[in-house]
Design brief:
heterodimer, A: mainly alpha, globular, B: mainly alpha, flat
């Protein structure tokens, strides 16, 4: 299939993604919106497969395994456990993004190792890795796993800041020293994975929905960055739609819970007895 | 090329603005389904994963690509299904 035709069908998928997200914001259109979204995904995947030249055995094995696991999770889950399942799925999406960026780096030619490409690869890896480990911790918190329940130690903010600066530094090094991009990519992802854990582990369980919503926004941005690496429009559009709308939803959820995002992220508890009327 | 990157950046920014604009008032009961549905859409990284699985990219890229396909498919398929279940649940509650 020609790239022109593929891009036109990607455009149709992008429109369906927009209509789907919009539909999900109203009770009457929500079910239809979700169907638009899944139809768009199906369309984007099928039309990509028609590009040809792929190792189809590996692809169909991956699609089959993923679909079976996804269906089992979605069917078996208790109604009350749905938020943590969303966190888990979100983590998987983040992981997929940093794996895609890593895979692309492994077969990149010298011409591919330019500044825009490497920047996009670094962003996809960094955001994807934070999303992955952060979402797994959010899942664990909601699942009330004992070993991550009340973790506390000194200098959390300082350690977080060091991890954040360190991982960004490795990302910058990727761009500046392309011949070692692979090595720096791995180091960056390792620090980002640690950062994701520490960013979420101190946040209380009640604030988790807001955190998951923010991580959902991140996973969209990671996918969008992967789209820049591959020069793929539907990845960029769908990813940035989720990134932007996820941010708005996070804000809406904060308002609904009467919490500020900074308080959620830095783990400040609301003083007891204090209400909105205090300010 | 430079032209290509500017075009991709334009597409990105326009989609960001659309993403900001389409979410306005969301009733609280739809917060979780909307989060879940948009999370399923972020499984679009599946398309990127498919593009990394080619014979001439070598076994390493294909292994990472395979893992990415599995994870992104769980994200997308599971995500849309669980969103549908949530929405059905609300519909039953009402009716």
């Amino acid at each position: 299939m020609s790239m022109e035709l593929t891009n036109i069908i990607y455009m149709v998928a992008a429109v369906l993604f927009i209509l789907g997200l919009k539909g999900l914001t109203h009770p009457k259109t929500a079910v239809r919106g979700n169907m638009y979204g899944s139809a768009a995904m199906f369309l984007a995947v099928v039309v990509t497969l028609f590009l040809g030249g792929m190792n189809y055995w590996v692809i169909f094995a991956g699609l089959a395994v993923g679909a079976v696991i996804g269906v089992i999770f979605a069917m078996k889950i208790q109604m009350t456990a749905m938020p943590q399942l969303v966190a888990l799925f979100n983590g998987f999406g983040g992981a997929a993004s940093f794996l895609v960026a890593g895979a692309t780096l492994s077969f990149a030619t010298d011409a591919d190792l330019n500044v825009p490409n490497l920047t996009a690869t670094a962003l996809s890896g960094l955001i994807g890795a934070v999303t992955f480990s952060g979402s797994l911790i959010a899942f664990g918190k909601l699942q009330e796993l004992k070993f991550i329940k009340d973790v506390r130690f000194d200098n959390q903010q300082l350690i977080n800041a060091c991890l954040a600066i360190g991982s960004i530094l490795f990302g910058v090094l990727m761009v500046l020293v392309p011949q070692y991009a692979g090595l720096f990519y791995v180091l960056m992802c390792l620090l980002a994975l640690a950062l994701g854990v520490l960013l979420v582990i101190f946040i209380g369980g009640a604030d988790m929905p807001v955190v998951i919503s923010l991580l959902n926004s991140y996973s969209g941005l990671a996918a969008s960055a992967a789209g820049f690496v591959l020069g793929n429009t539907v990845l960029i559009i769908a990813g940035s739609l989720v990134g932007a709308s996820g941010l708005i939803l996070t804000r809406i959820m904060c308002v609904a819970m009467n919490r500020s995002l900074t308080n959620v992220l830095f783990g400040k508890m609301q003083a007891s007895g204090e209400s909105a009327s205090a300010d | 090329s430079a032209m290509e990157y500017t075009l991709l950046l334009t597409i990105f920014l326009l989609a960001v603005f659309v993403g900001f604009e389409i979410i306005t008032k969301v009733p609280p009961t739809l917060h979780t389904p909307l989060m879940s549905g948009s999370n399923a859409i972020s499984g679009i990284t599946l398309v990127g994963a498919l593009l990394t699985i080619k014979m001439d990219y070598g076994w390493f890229a294909q292994t990472l690509g395979f893992l990415a396909v599995v994870l992104a498919t769980v994200n997308a398929v599971g995500g849309f299904m669980v969103t549908h279940r949530m929405l059905e649940m609300f519909r039953k509650k009402k009716g």
